[in-house]
Write a structure and sequence with these properties.
Elements (H helix, E strand, L loop, with lengths): L2 H13 L13 E7 L6 E7 L1 E3 L2 E5 L10 H8 L2 E6 L2 E9 L2 H14 L2 H7 L7 E5 L13 H32 L12 H33 L4 H26 L6 H25 L15
Length: 299
């Protein structure tokens, strides 16, 4: 899609709560904002989608071209994306489906939008199907109005990602255990899910800590100099947690070959350390931020 035309679609979408004319009139369209794999800059792309329960399915068709579109390569590097759907806007985790699951979801897409089958016929590459998670029931919760509330929201998300990593690795080990050796291998489909969730968790945790160390803590020290030791301890914890985070990435990278009991023990230990850190922040830091407005006031 030429850049000038793409921008006109984006502008019209935002001006009309997701409704556009021209070749997309009446189509189910969303705007996907990814972070550049190399530039780290935001990029917004209009995409067709198919709703599947509490998920949105988008296909990296690139109109049947031989290479994946840029937005797909971006989300592999930065799984947390921004979705605009009608007049809604929310963050989502983008996870490409794999193996039989991908084929099942692609058939679901083609049943509703047959044109994607033509795009698949036009190229030798397998068109990726990306699952975008819709906000959960807590999306209807009262809006966040303080920095303490925002940090608590981030902590809740981080804990949820850790649970997802645990659940999906357990499903992977179950599939391995059911495999009888020769013949069909264990059902694929969890490799990218585990990777994307871990990557999203690690990137969010790193960003969270960078913001705290670089902005939140220095500002709070000015108001609460008697708590300098608390902030110093948290900075030291951040360095320790960064090491745990790196070890978690290595552990998950070896999930396909590791011994399950050792993996479970290591994952449990790392989860306990990460959770204890979040608990400590909530006890000592969040009460200090209850009166700091969020989003920050603009000049």
């Amino acid at each position: 899609m030429p850049q000038t035309f793409q921008q006109s679609v984006i502008t019209e979408f935002r001006a009309n709560a997701g409704k556009v004319g021209g070749p997309f009139e009446g189509a189910d369209l969303l705007l996907l904002t990814t972070t550049g794999a190399r530039s780290a800059k935001p990029h917004t792309t209009p995409l067709g989608y198919v709703r599947d329960g509490r998920r949105l399915l988008v296909v990296a068709s690139n109109l049947g071209a031989p290479l994946h579109p840029d937005w797909y390569r971006n989300l592999l590097a930065h799984p947390t994306v921004r979705v605009e759907l009608g007049d809604e806007e929310f963050e989502s985790l983008a996870v490409p489906a794999e193996g039989a699951r991908r084929d099942e979801l692609f058939a679901r897409v083609v049943a509703e939008t047959p044109g994607y089958a033509e795009y698949q016929d036009a190229t030798d590459r397998v068109l990726p199907v990306v699952v975008l998670e819709l906000p959960g029931p807590d999306a209807a919760a009262p809006p966040v109005t303080s920095l303490a509330g925002k940090m608590a929201e981030v902590h809740t998300w981080l804990r949820g990602q850790l649970r997802h990593v645990r659940d999906e690795t357990e499903a992977y080990f179950d599939a391995r255990a059911r495999h009888g050796g020769a013949g069909e291998p264990p059902a694929p489909g969890l490799g990218l899910q585990i990777r994307q969730r871990c990557l999203a968790f690690c990137q969010a945790l790193e960003f969270h800590h960078t913001a705290e160390d670089g902005h939140v803590f220095p500002a709070m020290e000015g108001y609460h100099p008697h708590l300098r030791d608390v902030f110093d301890r948290l900075r030291e914890e951040h360095r320790s947690i960064a090491a745990v985070q790196a070890a978690l990435a290595v552990l998950l990278a070896d999930a396909a070959i590791t011994e399950p009991d050792r993996f479970r023990a290591e994952l449990a230990r790392m989860t306990e350390e990460l959770t204890a850190h979040l608990d400590h922040e909530e006890k000592h830091i969040l009460p200090l931020l209850a009166e700091v407005p969020w989003p920050p006031a603009t000049a």
